[in-house]
Amino acid sequence: MSSDDAAPKTSTEWWRVDTATLHARKQELEVLKRQLDAEQNAILAEINSRGIRGCSGHSTLAGLILEDFLVSDKEASARADRVLALHSGPSIGGDPEPPLAPLTAEAAAEGAIGGGQIDAIIKTLARIPSTVPEADVRAGEKILVELARHAGPRQIARAGRRLLDELDPDGKEPRNEDPKDTRPELRFIKHRDGTLGLKARLDLETYARLKSDLDPMAKPHKAIDGVRDSRTQDERYGDAFTDYVRLKTTSRNLPGQAGEATHILITMSYDDLIRDIGEAHLDLVGPISATDARILACDARVRPGVLGTAGEPLDIGRSKRTVSLAQKYALTIRDGGCAFPGCDMPVPRCTAHHIVFWRHHGETKIDNLVLLCTRHHRLIHRSEWKVQIAQDGLPEFTPPAYLDPTGTPRRNTMHLRT
Questions:
Q1: Which of 125, 173, 263, 289 is the most buried (most CB within 10 A)?
Q2: CA–CA distance from 335 to each of 244, 295, 411, 414 (Å)?
Q3: CA gyration radius for the chain?
Q4: What is the mean pLDDT of residues 132-144?
Q5: Quick one: average pLDDT of 125-138?
Q6: Which pLDDT score, from 0 to 100, does residue 95 have?
Q7: pTM value?
Q8: What is the pLDDT of residues 80-109, one digit of tens each?
Q9: How confident is the prediction for the chain on average, in pLDDT?
Q10: Which residue, among 55, 52, 113, 56, has the nearest Cα to 85 in the 3D structure?
Q11: Distance from the Cα of residue 113 to its chain's centroid
Q12: Can you state the angle between helices 19-50 and 61-69, rounded to 10 degrees?
C-alpha cells in the first residue's frame, strides 16, 4: 500500500498511521510546498516583468508581497529577492535580463531546495565580481545547488565562502588604518543582474551631512486606511536619495554645463517617437523604455534628440524647463503636494505631470498639470490609473476597474487647503 493510500482523510486521523508513513508523507508535502513556492515565484516574476506590480500603488515587488500576503517586512524582502534572482528581469527593448541563479531556479522548481537554501546560494552569487567569467560562475552555482540537495543553509554558506575565495582570491580591499584621512571616492557600478548602483567611501563630515539630509526624507509615509508604509528602511533611503539627487540637480546654484543646470540627453528614433514603441537611449546610462523617457520629459531640463531611421540627428531641441516658476507656484497653491489620493509627499519632492502627455500634444498649462511624487508619477505612466481636472479646478483620480469597478473618482485629502 502506498503512502497516499494509507494517508488519513482528515488531519485528526494521523495517529492511526505507522511511523514510516508519517515520515514519508511529511517529505512528500515538503516537496509539494517547495514546488508551489516555485510556481508562485514564477507568477510574481511575470507580474514584475509586465510592470503590473505598480498598478495598485506598490513601488516595489517586496511591497506587493507584504500587503497581498500579510507577511513581515523581512519575509517580504526575502521572497522578493528570490523572485528577482531566479527569474529573468524585465526586457527593455531587447532580450530579457538573464537571472542571477538559473540552476538554482531549476532545482527549486523540482522541489529539491527551499527558501533558506536558495537564499544562501543567491547571497554567494551576488557577491561574485562581474569580472569573473560566466562559465566559472555557473560552475560554482552548480556546486552549491548539488550541495543544497542534501545540506542546509549554514553548510551552503560555508561552501559559498570557499567558492568566493577561489573566484576572488584578492577579496575586499583592506581597510584604511585611519579612515578620517581617507580621500572620498565614488564609483558607478553595473551589477551582474543588470541593476545600477553606487559605491562610495566618504569622509566623516560628508557622511554626516548626507545622512542628516536624507534622514527626514526617509521617514515612513503616514498610514493610509490603516495600511502602513510597506517599504523597508533601505528602500526608504533609496527613494529619499532619488528625490535628493533630483532636487539638487535642478538647483540653479550648482555648477552645470556652460553655467546651466544639469542636462539629460535622450535619443530615440523618429518612428518610435511617433508610434510610441521601442526604446530610447539615456546619456551615460544606456537603453531605457519609451515610458521612462516620457516620465523624464514631464518636468525636467531635457534636451530631446530625435533620430532618423539611419540614426542621423533630425532635430536637437533647445534646452527648456517645461514648467515655469510661476506655474509651479500655482500648482503648489492648488495641489499642496502630491495630488494622488492618500499621499502626503510635500511639494519639494514632487514634479509637474502633464495630464495629456506631451507626445499627445498636451499643453503646459495649469489645467493640464498636476503635482506627483516620484512613486505616483511612475504609477500614472505605467498603469491604468487616470487623472483629470474636475469642474471645480481640482485634480481627481480614477482607479483601474479591477480596483474599483464603479470607477468613482478619488481625491487627496492629506493636504489641507484653507
A1: 125
A2: 21, 20, 10, 10
A3: 26
A4: 92
A5: 88
A6: 63
A7: 0.45
A8: 999 999 998 765 555 667 889 999 999 999
A9: 76
A10: 113
A11: 26
A12: 130
Q: Which CATH class is domain 325-398?
A: mainly alpha
Burial of 386 (0-12, 13-18, 19+ CB in 10 A): middle
106 neighbors 144 (Cβ within 8 angstroms): no
Amino acid at 92: I
pLDDT tens figures, 284-331:
556 666 666 666 655 555 445 545 444 444 443 323 446 677 777 788
The 3-class secondary structure across the chain, one letter per residue, is: CCHHHHCCCCHHHHHHCCHHHHHHHHHHHHHHHHHHHHHHHHHHHHHHHHCHHHCCCCCCHHHHHHHHHCCCHHHHHHHHHHHHHHCCCCCCCCCCCCCCCHHHHHHHHHCCCCHHHHHHHHHHHHCCCCCCCHHHHHHHHHHHHHHHCCCCHHHHHHHHHHHHHHHCCCCCCCCCCCHHHCCCEEEEEECCCCCEEEEEECCHHHHHHHHHHHHHHCCCCCCECCECCCCCHHHHHHHHHHHHHHHHHCCCCCCCHHHCCCCEEEEEEHHHHHHCCCEEEECCCEEEEHHHHHHHHHCCEEEEEEECCCCCEEEECCCEECCCHHHHHHHHHHHCCCCCCCCCCCHHHEEEEECCCHHHCCCCCHHHEEEEEHHHHHHHHHCCCEEEECCCCCEEEECCCCCCCCCCCECCCCCCCC
At residue 273, the pLDDT reads 55
Are 340 and 373 in contact, with CB atoms under 8 Å apart? yes
The pairing of beta strand 301-307 with beta strand 313-316: antiparallel
Confidence label for 202 from pLDDT (cuts 50, 70 and 90): confident
Domain boundaries, the chain: 3-167, 191-249, 257-321, 325-398
- Cβ pair 30, 114 in contact under 8 A: yes
**What pLDDT score was predicted for residue 319?**
37
End-to-end CA distance of the chain: 77
pLDDT in tens, 208-224: 677 877 888 888 776 65
Cell of 185: 571616492
Higher pLDDT, 1 or 363: 363
Return d(Cα 243, Cα 349) in angstroms, integer.
Answer: 6
